[in-house]
Amino acid sequence: MVTLQFPTRRRLLAMVASVAVLLGATACGDDRSADRTGGDAPVTEADRRYGQAPAPHREVTYQPDVVIVGGGGRSVRSVTPDGLTWRIDPRAKRAAELARGRVMFITGRGVGRVIDVRRDGDDLAVTVGPVAITEVIRDGRFTSDRPVPFDRMVANPAGEPFWAEAEEGTSGAGGSGGGGGGPLPGRSKTARIPAGKFNVTPTCCATGIGLHFTYDSGGIRLVGTLELMFEKPSGTFDLVIDNGSVKKAMFEVTGGTGLRLDVEGGSALGAGHNINRRITIPVDFAVPLGTFLGVPFSATVNQSLTIQTAFSAKDGNIKANARYGFSGKLGFGYQNGSFDAWKPAGFQVQDSLTNSITGISVGVNGLLFAYQARLHVGIGAFGFSTGLYVGLTASVGVTMGSALGAPLTVCRGATLNLFTDYGVGYRLPTAVVKVINLFLRVFEAKPIEAEGGIGGTANVLNRNEVIPDVPLCRK
């Protein structure tokens, strides 16, 4: 946990407050975080499992429909793997005020617009959707006075949420999944995790943010590793909200050094048997930052991967690997209604993607991967995190021509596109929104939106190469 510095007088006050905690004098409404850059509230097992509790503060104003439920993580019984339904103690302070349309704020991870609330046995089951941070906070300034340690993340697995794997262009979904205890955070490297028919092993964050994946179904086999390389990534931020609007914002992440990938695939069946899947990795890597004006902020990292295959004949296969370097920082500044994006520069080819492509088939083979890593500072969990964010997406395509063209030439092609997205609020993948909204029909609830808040995107790099560079291959 990050411990942010108090001025001397306030540190003395915090020490007095800590003694009061030991003497059993705490209450849910205590003003435990008197400075504007973070505090030293004790972290309990419930905090680690479900997040720290929010608290009123004289320098922050919540929106009028926000319900701060008392007890924090101690009032949470369980959370479903999809992160949508929180089972809480109905006797918790202000729990009776929860109703459709209001915003539940029970912990730094448990915050969202109430879609449904009902008694279920001894629990109060509260289903929530995403909110922009300005739907929670009306006034306040939240700023860091020391680097945010993105290199100290621990894993928070979600289990097997139904939204983890979605077919692009469809809205099919399974059920919401059974109740879960909200697994305790693990180590910085996680074990293999199922996401639909994929198995993924995400990693984060001291040397990079990435994942290894495998897929073996319907005659198609895929295996690969994609990673955004970092060297002890860290960040700084500043956020000013006034009367429910973002007046000023800054989020900067340093330490990025490059991109590497190693992918291969094959098909036993060929044309008519391809896949187009989006995987939202059901793991958050997070580190709590303490309370800011009573608001428990965390730094989080989440990832997603889109995979599309294009095998045109039986027994086709293709393989490629590459490594690229870059320098500079990720982030943005926002003031006076406009954004200024900061993006990587100094792009260098260390191992060429195009030169690495190998494979053989009587037809044309192709693979397309779109990998995204997004870094957040704010509240919420998984794809529902809200606050400041910046992401980097690498879209990679490789193709290998038919071996029947070998007497002339076998064409190899590669594309690499990088772009960054940034803002204040939340952004959800369209495919994920579709499956969640299908599930929410059970509650006859208003569909959630794919994004809330303000933000933008900026292009970083576009490369398109063919080998050999002849008219036949450029068609």
Automatic annotation (TrEMBL):
Residues 171-184 have a biased composition (Gly residues). Residues 45-55 have a biased composition (Basic and acidic residues). Residues 1-27 form the signal peptide. Keywords: Signal. The keyword Cell inner membrane does not apply. Residues 31-55, 166-190 are annotated as: Disordered. This is Lipoprotein. It comes from Micromonospora sonneratiae.
